[in-house]
Amino acid sequence: MKKNLFITKVILIISLCMLFVPISGNDRKVTAFTNQVIQQGAVGDDVIELQSRLQYLGFYNGKIDGVFGWGTYWALRNFQYEFGLDIDGMAGGKTKKKLVDASKYDKAFVKEQINKGSKFTHYGGVDLEKQKKPAGQSAEKPKAPANNNGGGQKAEQKPTATNIPNGFSQNDIQLMANAVYGEARGEPYTGQVAVAAVILNRVDSASFPNTVSGVIFEPRAFTAVADGQIWLTPNETAKKAVMDALNGWDPTGNALYYFNPDTATSGWIWSRPQIKQIGKHIFCK
Amino acid sequence: MLRGILIGVLALGVAGTAFWGYQEHREKNAILINAENNYQRAFHDLTYQIDVLHDKIGTTLAMNSRNSLSPALADVWKLTSEAHSNVGQLPLTLLPFNKTEEFLASIGDFSYKTAVRDLDKEPLSEKEYQSLKKLYSQAGEIQQDLRKVQHMVLKNNLRWMDVEMALATDSQPADNTIIDGFKTVEKTVDGYGETDFGPAFVNMQKKDENFKYLEGKEITKKEAENIAKKYAAFGNNVNIKVTENGDGSKYGFFSVTVQDNKTKNEANMDITKKGGYPIWFILARDVKKQAISLNDASIKAIQFLKDNGFESLDLFESAQYDNVGVFTFVTNENDIRIYPDSIKIKIALDNGKLLGFSAEDYLRAHHVRDIPKPVITREDARSKINPQVKVMEEGMAIIINDINQEVLCYEFLGTLGDDTYRVFINADDGNEERVEKLKNAEQIFDDVV
Question: In this protein, which residues make up the domain named PepSY (chain B) (predicted)?
């Protein structure tokens, strides 16, 4: 009799487990953060989860884009305040645990919406189906010509926004990368950062235009612009070099000019006070 | 005989014509590129100005005092007129582009009228404030649309000359992305201020002071080599080259190149002759998949600073770019943040090692300061802030103001709508020294095409 009871118990437990397995085994299962401490400026899956969970609880009203910016920071601090945690704006072990306990995260739903590029929210207590809008309800323009060679890394889940140094846009970076690639693609990495830094020094200088595009397209300023080489497609290195320059690296010692001594045609450029040479370029004041 | 001469003359004629034709062709190409560049400049300038316009209007929303509002509105006015002239230079005469111009004109009018008015006697009314808000959101939309067009122009290498030719020959251009894009802009009608590098950037004038605060003995080439070797951390199997600065530099420095003989990775570094301080350091290598978090990297950066004798610094900003973490540190003296003293560090997120280091601003600005006591109280300073801004964090800071002086300020971080602002109130006289709208993450446009 006792044994029978035991068996019934076991069967009951197993069947109970079976009951739960399909639910949690569904791809809508609860997944929790990796064990990193998430801080402002971070990007990635953990940030997407953080934003979704904060939104679930109503702290975060911005877009779930996978970049830990100011909106996420304030939301997280408010959460920490309300839940009696240390208010430091960082998602460490304790905060993440509280967050996981208090909220639900429908990973499959969020990822699906991000992949589709839909507008969506992830508030708790509201049917998720009502929180999505298909992408492109605004009048869509005709498809641009096929030029899809750049989409090699599309398959992986990516944040839909990105960190950009203060005061610049992705397009500024692209334009500068074009100029750097056209002017200095054969140069070592530091030489490419240096060319980007010269562009920025000129933007800063009173004797040159005040915009990146103004400096780049100033007549006769850069040979790569004058002969059309600026329209070559830049590589990743040029882009990284531009990012370094925008973030404050200046290998040139505040140079405003540079030239290649082997090909320079103007005698004037030799009269500028020279600061240093990087690769083939001489940088001057 | 006659035949020979005739052939000679004709041959010369043909050769001459060919040469002339080639010259013409080259000239035509040069002029084409030139014209194209002018269009490109006008277009990219326009998108940039709209960017700045949007930010500037956003900043004025959070301002309170006349001292800061009037110049900011004057700036907006200047920007609209610049943007307007750039719209005028684009080959869009055959396109209906008048709404965007109207929008620019209405911002221009509004900002002019309010900028020249004495805002102390007659502050912005609630209605004006609302219209400023509306202009801000419209500017945001136009900015977004223009950026999309700009992204497509850059991505697909579109030429304005093609548009013009298409318009001139009246044939339907095969690819009229530019025109379509502008029609979208026109539909939603779009905005950013002069580039403001934020408080942690020392500007050009300041740069002329040239490391006057540095202390220490002149170092030798050998010592410079050793410093660079330590920063590069390649071990001893390296190839080192040291050069001195040229005559054009106002200060003395060594440029050191360290190459790892095994991996061929190269590190470059400039070191001041006086005292042997690192000005900047760059290590060029491919960074592999992210293995550590931004937070772990920031701990490494802090440790690195400690190991290299930099003290009392606060982590001010951190940002992840792909698999690289970039951190900005500023001096913290008795809980006062000294923004001119900034150091930037780049850490690879694959192994947590140093990729870059930039202390130029720090070396120029860092010195023992005699920090005055604040004259006004924190509450007084707080009352100077626009009441619409919700203050979230506060502290004290030294910044460089518009006339290049270091001033002690109360610093407030606050939110208004979806944006976060940093407001500096002079601790001496309560002036609103600086209002900054902090950058939000930028949408990636990959999917619009």
Answer: 376-435
pLDDT of B203 strictly over 90: no
Q: Which of B192, B196, B198, B207 is nearest to B328 (CA)?
A: B198
* pLDDT tens-digit readout, A19-40: 444 443 333 334 578 888 898 8
Residues linked to residue A265 through DSSP beta bridges, in sequence order: none
The residue assigned the tokens 């850059």 is B154
CA distance B234 to B228: 10
Are residue B57 and residue B168 in the same domain, yes or no? Answer: yes
Given this model, what pLDDT does residue A254 score?
A: 86
pLDDT given at position A146? 36
Question: What are the φ and ψ backbone dihedral angles of B293, each rounded to 5 degrees?
Answer: -85, 165
Mutation target to probe the A interface, by most A beta carbons within 10 A, among B147, B156, B197 is: B197
C-alpha distance from B231 to closest chain A C-alpha (Å)? 16
Same domain, B100 and B236: no
Domain spanning A27-133: which superfamily?
A: PGBD-like superfamily/PGBD (1.10.101.10)
Are B51 and A169 in contact (CB < 8 Å)? yes
Q: Are residues B83 and B183 in the same domain?
A: yes
- Greatest CA separation found in chain B? 106
Same domain, B394 and B332: no
Q: Is B105 found in the same domain as B54? A: yes
Domains of chain A, by residue range, sit at: 27-133, 170-284
Is A115 an 8 Å CB contact of chain B?
Answer: no
Neighboring chain A residues of B279 at a CB cutoff of 8 Å: 253
The CA distances from residue B26 to A93, A231, B22, B34, B219, in Å, are: 67, 19, 6, 12, 54
Backbone conformation region of residue A279, classed left if phi is above 0, alpha if psi is from -120 to 50, else beta: left
Question: Which of A73-87, B181-195, B328-342 bottoms out in mean pLDDT, i.e. has the lowest?
Answer: B181-195
DSSP assignment, residue A60?
-
Residue A149 DSSP class: G
Assigned fold of A170-284? Arc Repressor Mutant, subunit A (1.10.10)
- B239 contact A CB<8A: no
Residues B350, B390, single domain; the answer is: no
DSSP B386: -
Gyration radius (Cα) of chain B, Å? 28
**ipTM score:** 0.73
Domain boundary among B365, B394, B410: B365
What DSSP assignment string belongs to B291-310?
-S-HHHHHHHHHHHHHHTT-
Å between B209 CA and nearest CA of chain A: 12
B405/B395 Cα distance (integer angstroms): 20
B361 and B382 together in one domain: no
Task: Give tens-digit pLDDT for A124-160.
Answer: 777 777 777 655 443 333 333 333 333 333 334 566 7
Are both B70 and B140 inside the same structural domain? yes
Domain tally for chain B?
3
Q: In this complex, do B195 and A168 lie within 8 Å of one another by their Cβ atoms?
A: yes
Residue B202 lies in a domain: no
pTM passes above 0.90: no
pLDDT of B111 reads 83
Of residues A108, A252, A146, the one with CA closest to residue A191:
A252
Distance CA A96, CA B295 (A): 15
User: Rounded distance, CA B253 to CA B255, Å?
Assistant: 7
Is the CB of residue A279 less than 8 Å away from at least one CB of chain B? no
| B213 occurs within a structural domain | no
**Is A204–B442 a contact, with Cβ atoms under 8 angstroms apart?**
no
List all residues of chain A from 166 to 195 with a beta carbon under 8 Å from chain B: 166-172, 174-175, 178, 188-190, 193
Residue A149 has a pLDDT of 36
* Mean of pLDDT values over A223-246: 88
**What is the C-alpha to C-alpha distance for residues B415 and B398, in angstroms, rounded to an integer?**
22
Structural domain for B159, as ranges? 24-192
